[in-house]
Structure formats: structure tokens, C-alpha cells
Design brief:
By secondary structure, the protein is of the alpha/beta class. It folds into two domains: about 120 residues, Rossmann fold (3-Layer(aba) Sandwich); about 90 residues, Winged helix-like DNA-binding domain superfamily/Winged helix DNA-binding domain (Arc Repressor Mutant, subunit A, Orthogonal Bundle), CATH 1.10.10. It is built from eight helices and eleven strands. The strands form three sheets. Strands 2-1-3-4-5 form a five-stranded parallel beta sheet, with helices on both faces. A four-stranded antiparallel beta sheet has the order 6-7-8-9, covered by helices on one side. The longest helix has 18 residues.
């Protein structure tokens, strides 16, 4: 299980990294906010741990940028700021939990375990959208019990839409975050959405995938 630790104090970050690795986590380190944001966008993490006061970009800004990019990875914020207003600000920006320095390693690790458990539940293997079933582990899709044959890109696109069913995914987000492809253009996304719709909506009047003009795509709200 991979976690990302973004903390500018190298003594603290090394101490936390050792504690995480002792618990069986693989920990990536960044020592400023901008580097942390770039790692978070490139990698797939179970939890992101963010300090607030950092050079180049503070933790609040990183948290907001990730949530604006529809990154739903659980975020634990670490800070010396214990004012209620600071905690509320972090949570309002999309953080999942907050830990005030100084803290014990026991509590830190307990918070990480709680966030990873929550993330596992949210990322369960089988996803249902009405009569459509997506098995993320087996990489299979069936509608009303009938198996559907999807390409790899169609499957990852459908899974991303299903896991973010209340959000609109932009074409840029699909290219960069879902496919990890900086070279495709928006027309490529349109092509794959059209192909995917033909396969999952065959014989039905309404599409499972809605186009939100000017923004992107999402799963139909009443599915």
C-alpha cells in the first residue's frame, strides 16, 4: 500500500517514513508543496499526508488543487495550527482528517489505518449502476447479466465515471488522470465515449453516460 508524505521538515518526514514502512506501507516523500502535488497527480496512493506550512505551495493549496482535479484520495493534514478556523478550513477544502503537532506515532498510524480502511470500502471491487455490473478486479462488465467486451481504455473510463458518479469528469482529467496520457486530444475522449455508449446502451433509449456540455461527462443522475 502506497502513501504520499508531503512535509518540509526532513527530520519529521524521515521519522514518519520509518514508522510507515515499519507498518508495511511504501512511503514516497516530497519536501515542498509543488513537488507533492506533482507526485500526487502522477501516482496512485491510498492516503496523502500533507503538512500545511511548506515552501512553494502550502498544504491548503495542494489539497484544493487535488480536489479540483477530482482526486478523491483520502488526505490527512498535519499542522502546528490548532485553531478551530484552521481545522475547518482544511476540512472545507476537502481534507478527510486533521492531526495537530505534536502527535504520537500511535495516533498518527491509527489515523492512517482508518483512512485506508475507508478508502478500501469506497474502492470495493464490484460496482453496480442499475443493471450494469463492473468488476474492477476481474476487469469485466455485464449489463442485465450479459457480458460486454470493452477495450482497456473503455473499461478504465467507465470505472472512473462509476467511482466518481456524482462528479463531472472533464476530457482533460480523463486523458491525464484516468489514462495517464499527455498526448491524446479531447476528440480521442469523444471517440471512446461514443464507442462505450454503443456497447453499454445497446437497445436502450437513454444513455448511462451523460454529456455535460462545456464540462465533460458523468453517470446519469437517476441511475
Amino acid at each position: 500500500m502506497r502513501v504520499l508524505l508531503v512535509e518540509d521538515d526532513e527530520v519529521i518526514s524521515e521519522r514518519l517514513k520509518r514508522a510507515l514502512e515499519k507498518e508495511g506501507y511504501n512511503a514516497d516523500l516530497a519536501h515542498d508543496g509543488q513537488a507533492g502535488l506533482e507526485l500526487a497527480k502522477m501516482g496512485e496512493y491510498s492516503v496523502i499526508i500533507l503538512d500545511i506550512m511548506m515552501p512553494k505551495r502550502d498544504g491548503w493549496s495542494v489539497c484544493q488543487a487535488l480536489r479540483d482535479a477530482k482526486n478523491t484520495t483520502p488526505i490527512l493534514m498535519l499542522t502546528a495550527k490548532d485553531a478551530i478556523e484552521d481545522r475547518v478550513k482544511g476540512l472545507d477544502l476537502g481534507a478527510d482528517d486533521y492531526l495537530v503537532k505534536p502527535f504520537s506515532l500511535k495516533e498518527f498510524l491509527a489515523r492512517i489505518r482508518a483512512l485506508t480502511r475507508r478508502n478500501k470500502i469506497e474502492k470495493s471491487s464490484v460496482i453496480h449502476l442499475g443493471d450494469l455490473e463492473i468488476d474492477a478486479n476481474a476487469k469485466t462488465v455485464a449489463r442485465n447479466g450479459t457480458p460486454l467486451k470493452l477495450t482497456k481504455r473503455e473499461f478504465t473510463l467507465l470505472e472512473a465515471l462509476a467511482r466518481n458518479r456524482r462528479r463531472i469528469l472533464s476530457r482533460e482529467f480523463i486523458i491525464e488522470q484516468v489514462w495517464n496520457d499527455d498526448e491524446s486530444v479531447s476528440n480521442t475522449v469523444n471517440f471512446h465515449v461514443t464507442s462505450l455508449r454503443k456497447k453499454i446502451d445497446e437497445g436502450r433509449e437513454r444513455s448511462l453516460i451523460e454529456t455535460v456540455h462545456g464540462f465533460g461527462y458523468r453517470i446519469a443522475e437517476d441511475i
